[in-house]
Amino acid sequence: MEGSSSCSSSMVSAPRQPSFLLSTLERLSTTSCLKLSAQETVPLAVIALQRYLSEQTVGQPQPVTYSYDVTVTDGSWRAKCFLHPSLNHLVHTNTLRTGSNISFRRCSYVYNERRLGHGYICVEALVCGAERSVLLPGIFDIQSLPVLVKPGMERSVLLQSDVPLQLSCKHYLPLWNDDDPEGDIWMSGSPSSETVLDVSKVALLGGLESYLRYSKRPHPLLVKIIHKSRLRYYGRLGLKIQYPYQAYFKVADKSGIMSLVLWNDLCPEFYQRMNVGTVLYLQNYVLKESYSNRSRPQMSHHGMTNFSSSEISLNYRDPAAVITIVSPKSVQPQWGLPEVSYQFTCRSELENLPTDYVCDVIGLVTFAGRVERVVSKGNKGPEKYWTYRWVHAVDGTSEQPFILELFSSSHPEIFGHICPMTYLVCTRMRVCKVEGSLPYLTSSCETEIFITGDCSW
């Protein structure tokens, strides 16, 4: 084994000051057992903590378990390490968290014998220190720190990519739930298409079922998204699908409304780019019978026909769907696409609404509670949680605020930035009444949230 460490040529040059991480890797490279105990207590800052489905032992049935990668820095280098499963409880109790200090007590080096040039440090024992790292305030740009890579592995793209160290899984999960996008694979903000579209032969949703009885090659669809659901993750051990996700949408054209399902590999590429109001030009789609055992948003306020017996399926392959996101300035009035509409309820009307009534609300946030987690109903297995927070908002029609129980809806960039003095829109909220208390609204499976305003103060 070689006794030095390096980073890829794309990284910045190695720092000159002594580095605990660098010396640790050098010692691991020269010891015969690839395992060592720390000779000194050196604080390391935790800059990332990432969860994913654990590797399955071949031929052995196992319960669903999760693994964690922890990225640390000593101020000179940054290193992604595998957290030994015996330390997972530190994550579960939030003792090990990003932004805190830790010290290695024992670690080892693990080689992946199934893939040449892939290995990583495994942290087997550690001590959690200060909740707020003393190192991080002195680091101007964490991403500019070189990545610690063992000699001979500098060209490994995987070791420097946002993917798990255990290569059986291709993506990370959110730390506290399964509903949010997590990692660099989730594309957002990509430019929409301004290419000229042939809309002379598009099919209408209203005639889709009868048309597909006589044609094996359906005409394209030109539709607008009027509802977007949260992500559904259905990963499990042994599943041979790299990105086991699905998301439901409601789309409409001038003939009516139909469900659309985005599957698997298409979710990281398109989910964050397909929003309410987005216009889609769809090719190579599949029409399937609707899945009956799921909740559906109320669409009656749109005043359009809802085609509920069938749904549009967009797949990564067999056939590979072609999704074109149409630029807003390219949308033509003659296409006859409907406007997005809502069913807003004022706070003054809330007491008169029945339990489980579904409505949309808008208001100015006056209170935003901390994010909490609760065990997910109906999911058997470890680490199945929902994240939620309590929010108060006023709309000027009552002295009482809306009391909102908001669950994460696959938009962490919105959910985590709700704060006082932002305007909040919540759709498909469900009325809850408890004797002796004010009524409150809770998220449904179809709830979406939007915010505007500045909370930088």
- Proportion in helices: under 10%
**Major sheet:** 8 strands, mixed
User: SSE order in H/E notation?
Assistant: HEEEEHEEHEEEEHEEEEEEEEHEEE
Shape: globular
How does the helix and strand content classify structurally?
mainly beta
Supply the number of helical segments. 5
Low-confidence stretches: 1-16
Radius of gyration: 25 Å
Ends distance = 53 Å
Overall tally of structural domains: 3
Compute the number of strand runs: 21
Determine the CATH superfamily of the largest domain. Answer: Nucleic acid-binding proteins
Keywords:
8-stranded mixed beta sheet, OB fold (Dihydrolipoamide Acetyltransferase, E2P), 32% strand, 457 residues, 7% helix, Chromosome X open reading frame 57, 5 helices, mainly beta, disordered N terminus, 21 strands
Describe the structure in your own words.
- The protein folds into 3 domains: 20-160, Nucleic acid-binding proteins (OB fold (Dihydrolipoamide Acetyltransferase, E2P)), CATH 2.40.50; 205-335, OB fold (Dihydrolipoamide Acetyltransferase, E2P); 347-452, OB fold (Dihydrolipoamide Acetyltransferase, E2P).
- 32% of the residues are buried.
- It is globular, with a radius of gyration of 25 Å.
- 7% of the residues lie in helices and 32% in strands.
- It starts with 19 loop residues before the first helix and ends in a 5-residue tail after the last strand.
- The protein has helices spanning 20-30, 88-92, 208-214, 266-270, 412-415; strands spanning 35-37, 44-53, 66-73, 78-83, 101-111, 119-128, 221-228, 232-233, 245-253, 256-263, 279-283, 286-289, 306-314, 322-326, 358-368, 372-375, 385-394, 402-407, 423-432, 440-443, 449-452.
- Strands 7, 8, 9, 10, 11, 12, 13 and 14 form an 8-stranded mixed sheet that branches. It has a 5-stranded mixed β-barrel with strand order 2-3-4-6-5. Strands 15-17-18-20-19 form a 5-stranded mixed beta barrel.
- The chain is mainly beta and 457 residues long.
